[in-house]
Amino acid sequence: MENRDSNSFQNGKSFSRRKFLSSSTIAGVGLSLNPFSMWANTKGNDTSQGKINKSQQQNINPDKRRLGNLEVSPLGLGALSVVGFYTGRVRDQYKVNKLYREAYDNGVTFFDTAEVYGPLISERQIGEAVEPFRKDVKIATKFGFDINPETGERGGLDSNPKTIRRAVEGMLKRLRTDYIDLLYQHRVDPNVPIEDVAGTVQDLMKEGKVLHWGLSEPGLNTIRRAHAVEPLTAIQNEYSPWTRNPESDVLPLCEELGIGFVPWCPLGYGFFADAINENTRFSEGDFRTILPRTTPENIPQNLQILYYIEEWGLRKNATPAQITLAWLLAQKPWIVPIPGTSNSVHLRENLRANEISFSKEELKEFDLGLSKIEIVGAQNAEPVMAAMGVEAPIKK
Ligand SMILES: NC(=O)c1ccc[n+]([C@@H]2O[C@H](COP(=O)([O-])OP(=O)(O)OC[C@H]3O[C@@H](n4cnc5c(N)ncnc54)[C@H](OP(=O)(O)O)[C@@H]3O)[C@@H](O)[C@H]2O)c1
């Protein structure tokens, strides 16, 4: 990211990033750091399964949360930052190992990645990083694209049973494990009935390769159909102070069915961590260049949300990132945000969000203030939005 009000070091970083993005090496290994490319072709051993009841959804231990029957830390760690999704710089393995060790030592037991992050690179990074404490943590990863397991070259959406199986075999190797704690379908494949996807995952569960499963950004009816075949553990959708649509549809459904919820981009791509301001200009290839809410025209108005969160930070002696994460945690005891960071200081800051509470009255007051602020720009870029909320075709 190029921040025009920041120092030359920042600009130096973005220069090397551009070089990185344009290098032929990237094409050679099929890195998917181009923000459009991920969406463009949209064509410990907690083995218990089964539905859970409402009381199981309660948060019994403040240091643990439950997604369905899967127990995890209240905050997870997202992998996009270390794989260079925003900066274009894949973190060196030494630093990744250090960051994940630090996360683990500070209580994080839930690590989120995906086959398409890199592609293939992020799972390798995390496989090595968590190997020393693998049995004590939960790894979540995602399939859903046609990715060449050798080259990382990526095609479009593909949740055909054969492709899922191929993906899982590769994941197990890259993650240096013989089981995946939580396997998500990254996006609904409009050509494959969800019953076929669920059936394939069910077979993988019988083989002990997958322990729990979930969906990311599915249509509501697809959730019901998937859950009827094999109970879902978590839905992973975008949710943060400027993307609150889960509150009216997906969250009530998760509550009804006993499914956990994992907000992605809980910090609004860094926006609610005070990492973006009106002088910020993103470098070419940074995902945020295509986000309608972070265009130079829209940032100033949207900063009103950050300023509002900062006011709450003064009341609660917390940073805006901490307030944002604490606000998400306060929504439901079965919500587990997965902020992404490549930075130890940010990691430690974010984890302290679990120490901040919101009373019911404070939540109401917070929401009232938030609802008065106009948010400008669509939730996400068009190709990303097109793949959200899709209903899988009916099985014939
Ligand atoms: N299912 C899906 O379709 C989907 C889509 C997107 C993401 N995800 C998952 O969700 C995770 C979270 O989303 P995300 O990482 O894209 O976005 P995010 O968590 O909203 O924000 C990450 C950005 O915020 C910065 N940041 C984090 N903590 C900070 C702090 N305390 N102070 C200043 N800056 C801070 C990070 O930079 P630094 O590295 O400098 O800290 C990074 O640029 C991902 O990592 C990924 O695992 C899933």
From TrEMBL:
Keywords: Oxidoreductase. GO terms for molecular function: oxidoreductase activity. InterPro entries: Aldo-Keto_reductase, NAD(P)_OxRdtase_dom_sf, NADP_OxRdtase_dom, TAT_signal. The keyword Transport does not apply. PROSITE patterns: TAT. Residues 75-367 form the NADP-dependent oxidoreductase domain. CDD domains: AKR_AKR13C1_2. GO terms for cellular component: cytoplasm. This is Aldo/keto reductase.
